[in-house]
Design goal:
The complex is a heterodimer of chains A (276) and B (258). With 276 residues, chain A is α/β, with parallel strands linked by helices. In chain A, the strands form 3 sheets. Chain A has a 6-stranded mixed β-sheet, sandwiched between helices. Chain A has a 4-stranded antiparallel β-sheet with strand order 2-1-4-5, covered by helices on one side. In chain A, strand 4 and strand 5 form a beta hairpin. The longest helix of chain A has 14 residues. Chain B is mostly helical and 258 residues long. Chain B has 10 helices and 2 strands; from the N terminus they run H-H-H-H-H-E-E-H-H-H-H-H. In chain B, strand 1 and strand 2 form a beta hairpin. In chain B, helix 2 crosses helix 7. The chains are: A alpha/beta (276), B mainly alpha (258).
Amino acid sequence: MSATHSNSAETIPVYDVRDVSYRYHQVRALDHLDLRVEAGRRVVLLGANGSGKSTLLRILNGLCFPDEGEVDFCGKPLTREGIESDGFGLEFRRRVGLVFQNPDVQLFCPTVFDEVAFGPLQLRWSEGEVRRRISETLEMMEITHLKDRSPHHLSMGEKKRVALASVLVLDPEILLLDEPTAALDPKSESHMIDFLVRSRGAGKTIVTTTHDLDIAEDIADDCFVFHEGSIVAGALPSQILSDVPLLKRTNLLHAHLHVHKSGEVHSHPHLHRHEE
Amino acid sequence: MDALEHVFYAEEVARADGLLQRLDARVKLLGLLALILPAAAARRFVVLEGLFAVAVVLAALSRVSFGLLLKRVWIAVLLFTGVIALPAPFVTPGRAVYQLPWLGWPITAQGLESAGYLVLRVETAATLCVLLVLTTRWNHVLKALRVLRVPAVLVTILGMTYRYVFLVLQTAHDMFESRRSRMVGELTGGERRRVAASSAGVLMSKTVDLSSEVYLAMQSRGFRGDVYILDESRIQRFDWIMLAGFTLISAAAFWWGR
């Protein structure tokens, strides 16, 4: 499935996912899923918890491979053999970065400096280049002061920024972000959204999973809705966000009780939209 | 949560502005090791006392609290080594200097000397080791091990263990608190054992999941089985001077302690 903007049937997409299914033992996580991601687009995958978004990101990052169906990356098949090969594998890791939902998974080194250095060292960059890129990335993410800190001393917001820095240090063309604003306080969330909004002009392809409808319009050019392992809709964010029956059906929008100033208590769905 | 508190305290000491804190971790590791070796080999009390005095002076110049050393090292070592050394005065042949009343067991001068050597050796070596650990961040200690030709993969595994042990401890603590918040009254011994066993199982399962995820995160950033480490520290003139100082003291202690 592709969003309605797509004008490039003739250009090679960054990702072409065709009829992909994936199971965790007996549980089907992805069910005959199709998706096309064009270069330079910011794509948001909207879906409730357990809808298969994170599994798809792992497949797009070559960490697991479909039971059925095929995935092409820039016109080449994304396979286990390809990822394990020196040529394609290293090139793929340099071009594609994944930020995990849980930063504790991603921050496995004793210090922030070591964490950010990990990727470039694995790709055998020269020591001078590694140091230069670490310094630039820490500055860009405004975390230079955390350089010598251990991850267990960081707040959740700081951990997320370090996790993002550890991927951005490689300057990947394609960025995969798994729930980047989950469990963040408002200030850290706004930092993350600012980054995603600013990245619009950087020419990167960004695929973000979230169930936060409030940020989708700000960070997406294209929007896809996940439900039970399949994509059930793909369109411009404004079109998706105005389709209330779709959002309700896919558990992205729900009514809950709340109190108004008058003291009246009632229940209806909430959605935060920008008019301009 | 005592373990976490100890670690936070140690990191606070490691950040203090003291003599050993200013040294490069590799120099500190080699220098303190150079003092531990003659302490293990010395056959003269005066040399051991001298090395112990050096350790105490280093602690003072590095702003390490004597109260902490007394509690965590000196008394603990005295109790532990004392138990091991206790039979020596009675079983070592030599000139009897005292006889235990009622039992009539003789205490020999040679036995007392052996026990004294053992206790002082361990006190000196333990003080120097604790100074290394307290005045150096753990990740720097690990990287410093590379000068002793410890393989990079082992250094990385130790680093990751250190990183995740806190996460697992925190998880275990949260599980414990969560259970306590829903409990009224005391559990019987059998119930406590069952809860402990099931908690250990859950923790184990979480740890296995976590390790799988961490491996994926490593792969995602290009890990292919080989480990590379970037050392950010530089040895300065002050480090070389201190290393020379450690070497001189060590050589003198070896010479006088023969």
